[in-house]
């Protein structure tokens, strides 16, 4: 579904990612592991069209997308759920959700059905649908950010650090929800520092260091890799 081929991206003179190669097949959950500043978010920004590579290509279903604007990429089926959620705090939960459905704004029945599906996945959002988004707890805000992304009916969802700042029990619930979203047909590319939780649900992963991918493999292989365990899993 998604191919990054020898992708390099700069901020000014600084090269943030160097010759990155990533493949995501339809139906997979793929995780990008690495410390803050390792290049995960830059990779997401590049896939989403917010950064343009100075080298290499990004392909969605064999179609070049690395020079397309972000709105065109969303229409082709890629949506990003940002690390800091980017909600509209004074707007209601449902108004935030409807913003995610903008590309389908003329398809009222489709929006209604998708809204029903998201509320089924996250019942607490239905209960609080009239409340301002800013009044929600951290976990509920993360649910809303994911729900809003789902309103565009993506083929591929980019999830940037969905567990950050959340209590362990909420993290567990969040990853169960991600598994359910994937089971229902959405391919997932996940950037995460909680390696144990991420690898527990992922098919495969890539490990970043200083803008380079230094290790890749199935989740089983990464769990068994001693260096990965010491650096990211703590065992």
From TrEMBL:
Transmembrane segments: none annotated. Keywords: Amino-acid transport, ATP-binding, Nucleotide-binding, Transport. CDD domains: ABC_TM1139_LivF_branched. Pfam families: ABC_tran. It comes from the Bacteria. One of its GO terms (molecular function) is ATP hydrolysis activity. Residues 2-235 form the ABC transporter domain. One of its GO terms (biological process) is L-amino acid transport. InterPro entries: AAA+_ATPase, ABC_transporter-like_ATP-bd, ABC_transporter-like_CS, BCAA_Transport_ATP-bd_LivF, P-loop_NTPase. The keyword ATP-binding applies. Belongs to the ABC transporter superfamily. This is Branched-chain amino acid transport system ATP-binding protein. It comes from Salinibacillus kushneri.
């Amino acid at each position: 579904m998604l191919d990054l081929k020898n992708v390099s991206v700069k901020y000014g003179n600084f090269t943030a990612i160097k010759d990155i190669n990533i493949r995501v097949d339809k139906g997979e959950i793929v995780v990008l592991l690495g410390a803050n500043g390792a290049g995960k978010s830059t990779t997401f920004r590049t896939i989403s069209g917010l950064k343009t590579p100075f080298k290499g290509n990004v392909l969605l279903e064999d179609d070049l997308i690395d020079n397309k604007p972000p709105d065109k990429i969303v229409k082709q089926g890629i949506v990003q759920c940002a690390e800091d959620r980017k909600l509209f705090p004074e707007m209601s939960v449902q108004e935030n959700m409807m913003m995610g459905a903008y590309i389908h704004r003329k398809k009222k029945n489709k929006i209604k059905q998708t809204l029903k599906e998201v509320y089924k996945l996250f019942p607490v959002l239905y209960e609080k649908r009239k409340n301002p988004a800013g009044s929600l707890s951290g976990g509920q805000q993360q649910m809303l950010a994911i729900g809003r992304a789902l309103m565009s009916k993506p083929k591929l969802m980019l999830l940037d650090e969905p567990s950050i700042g959340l209590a362990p029990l909420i993290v567990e619930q969040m990853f169960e929800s991600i598994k359910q979203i994937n089971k229902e047909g959405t391919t997932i590319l996940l950037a995460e520092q909680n390696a144990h939780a991420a690898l527990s649900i992922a098919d495969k992963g890539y490990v970043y260091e200083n803008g380079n991918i230094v290790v890749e493999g199935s989740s089983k292989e990464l769990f068994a890799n001693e260096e990965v365990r010491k650096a990211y899993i703590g065992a």
